[in-house]
Amino acid sequence: MAYSSLYYGLRPYLRKHWWRITGGVLLLVGANYYQVRVATVVGQASDAIKLGSANARDFVNYALWVVGFTLILAVCRLFMRLLIVGASRDIEYRFRNDIYEKLLRLPPSYYDHQRTGDLISKVTNDVEAVRMVLGPGVLQFSNSAILFPIAIFQMLRIDPLLTVVAMLPMAALPFVVNYYGNRIHQRFRRVQDHYSVISAMVQENLAGVRVVKAFCQEEPQVRLFDQLNDEYVRRNMSLAKIQSAFFPMLHTIAGVAVVVLLWAGASHVVAGRITIGRLVEFSLIQLMLFWPMMAFGWTVSLLQRGAASMERIREVMVLED
């Protein structure tokens, strides 16, 4: 439900900028392909060293291939970021203006029971959380979704059995993401709601400073502000605790995968199923998967934050003018 709210809220803007996002994703396909090709060349060079069948000129050629693929990869990633992140900034600008225009169209009676600080929070913090989904969120999610099949295909070509064994620890990933993702969403929503309360309290005190002074309410208001800030810290610490456990759990899964690869891969080399070069290539490809796996966890966190913020924004956008 949370993700559907995020999608339907952004769908009109995604339609307008679909070509930029699509272009960025296509460039990402090229970048990930050449990233895997680098591992293949390094593996071939490793086999040449082991067999002693190559001369200095051959190794220069290997180095040139690596440099060439790396340059192509860098250019693809540069323009991919320009397209996707640029689109997210343009969508943020239009989205913020649409919220403002919606607020102007609402009847005066709406503001009788709304706190100004809450509205300010929605058009600042909440819009920024949604933009993070469109920029870094789309970028990293697409990177993970594209690199995984390319890498798995190449790993299967090297050794299907070794691929299955090496990827077994990652089977725990969906369960870990689901467990932590839901809790991050709930806690971030509570943080944003309380931030609105603080913003409203500050705005009301600044707007009504003469009333506060006239009734000698400075000390009570200061105490109230301290209490609200203490509660805000407590809610943020609750969110930080669940996030601090999320990423170490992903690192643990990645570490277990490395241990399994070293054990199974060495056995396959000794048995003659694969060469040293192929094991080097396999290990490099597996290392390439670790960052997308970490980024996938970060992306889930961004999606949960963005979904919580979009729910708050849509409370305003769905109102009748």
What does this structure look like?
By secondary structure, the protein is mainly alpha-helical. It has one domain: ABC transporter transmembrane region fold. Helices cover 89% and strands 0% of the residues. It is built from 9 helices and no strands. The protein has helices spanning 2-16, 18-51, 56-105, 116-158, 160-167, 173-207, 209-214, 218-270, 276-317. α4 (116-158) packs antiparallel against α5 (160-167), α5 (160-167) runs antiparallel to α8 and α6 (173-207) runs parallel beside α9. The radius of gyration is 26 Å and the shape is elongated. The two termini are 25 Å apart. The relative contact order is 0.15. The model has no long low-confidence stretch (mean pLDDT 86).
List the helices and strands and how they pair.
Blueprint: H1 2-16, H2 18-51, H3 56-105, H4 116-158, H5 160-167, H6 173-207, H7 209-214, H8 218-270, H9 276-317
Helix pairs in contact: 1-9, 2-3, 2-4, 2-9, 3-4, 4-5, 4-6, 4-9, 5-8, 6-8, 6-9, 8-9
Please name the defining characteristics of this protein.
321 residues; mainly alpha; ABC transporter transmembrane region fold; 9 helices
Short structural description:
This protein has 321 residues and is mainly α. It contains nine helices and no strands.
Unreliable runs: none
Shape: elongated
Largest sheet: none
- Structural class, from helix and strand content? mainly alpha
Q: SSE string, helix = H, strand = E?
A: HHHHHHHHH
Instruction: Tell me what the CATH architecture is.
Output: Up-down Bundle
In oligomeric terms, what are we looking at? single chain
Name given to the CATH homologous superfamily: ABC transporter type 1, transmembrane domain
Q: Provide the CATH top-level class.
A: Mainly Alpha
- What is the end-to-end distance? 25 Å
Within the CATH hierarchy, at the fold level, what is the topology? ABC transporter transmembrane region fold
Quote the average pLDDT. 86
